[in-house]
Amino acid sequence: MKRSISLLVGALTRAPLATRVAAGFVGFWLVLAVGGPWVAPHPVGAFVDQDVFSGLSARLWLGSDYLGRDVFSRLLYGARYTVFLGLGAALLAACCGTALALWATLSGGAIDEVISRLMDTLISIPSKILALVLVAACGSSLPLLLLICALTYVPGNFRIARALAMNLAALDFVAAARARGERKFAIALHEVLPNMVHPLLADLGLRFVFVVLLLSGLSFLGLGVQPPYADLGSLVRENISGLTEGAPAILAPALAIAVLTVGTNLLIDALKPEDKR
User: Fold this and answer.
1) Where are the transmembrane segments (predicted)?
2) Residues of the chain predicted below pLDDT 50
3) pLDDT score at 2
């Protein structure tokens, strides 16, 4: 564990400034998502101020919202829902899409055709429209939001993973594994998947950004995390009336979404493989 941490610190020390800044942004939000609610000065739904949309102060660091609740406390709680729902949905979409891609590629024939056409059908539907239909039909509880966001982005991950797997499946070392009589599962796990990890990690980062923006959009429409709890998108929607006043209650969560997504994108760019020539 100590060696892994030291290697990570060493890699970040040698990394370009943009990479270190991006890693700092992403790490900050991960720490905030894990420990934020424990250090929040007020409960998530507590009314702590008689004034609405009050400014920054020593008692309320980010002011109060449209009901007089502490924006800083709600931001700490909202970060947990945004980060964990986004990361969980992105991981679930990546696992399902990659598993289906490996199965389709190594099976070929009718299985590959059926799975590919099904994924093409799903990807032809705009992600926000598909999510809105599923939320309207199934509800917006946290487990359902996780599953809906994951299902929305499985087809995109499938197409990328299948393209990678198809290129790898045509190489000699996969043909040699088949000639040795190895099963499809062993070939997928030991021969194909390890050579797909790097591009899939970059795609995972992009899916995380897409899911965060989708969750924020659903919450802005009132279909995401429900009161009294909120994610960052919900905080923007419920305080929209403070926009004309430039209230911190709406500026803080909007800036938080921007910092989280931009930091993740910068970190994804840093994951590009180095040129070995």
Assistant:
1) 21-40, 83-108, 129-154, 160-179, 200-226, 246-268
2) 1, 4, 7, 274-277
3) 52
The string of DSSP letters for 183-205 reads -HHHIIIIIIGGGGHHHHHHHHH
In the chain, how many domains are there?
1
Nearest to 192 by CA among 74, 106, 88: 106
CA-nearest of 89, 87, 77, 41 to 231 is 77
| pLDDT the model gives residue 275 | 40
* Amino acid residing at 215: L
Output the pLDDT for position 10: 56
Measure CA 86 to chain center: 3
Q: How many helices (H) and strands (E) does the chain have?
A: 11, 0
CA distances to 89, 93, 97, 113, 261 from 104, in Å: 22, 16, 10, 8, 32
Overall pTM > 0.85? no
- The single-letter DSSP state of residue 269 is H
Domain of residue 248: give its range: 35-270
**Sign (positive or negative) of CA dihedral 247, 253, 255, 258:** negative
Note whether residue 50 is domain-resident: yes
CB 44 within 8 A of CB 77: yes
In a domain, 27, yes or no: no
Q: Is residue 24 assigned to a domain?
A: no
Q: Is the dihedral of CA 154, 160, 163, 165 positive or negative?
A: negative
Q: What is the pLDDT of residue 274?
A: 47
Alpha-carbon span 264 to 30, nearest angstrom: 11
Give 70's strand partners. Answer: 64
CATH number for the domain spanning 132: value is 1.10.3720.10
Cβ neighbors of 138 (< 8 A, separation 6 or more) are: 144, 148
C-alpha 52/C-alpha 68 separation (Å) is 5
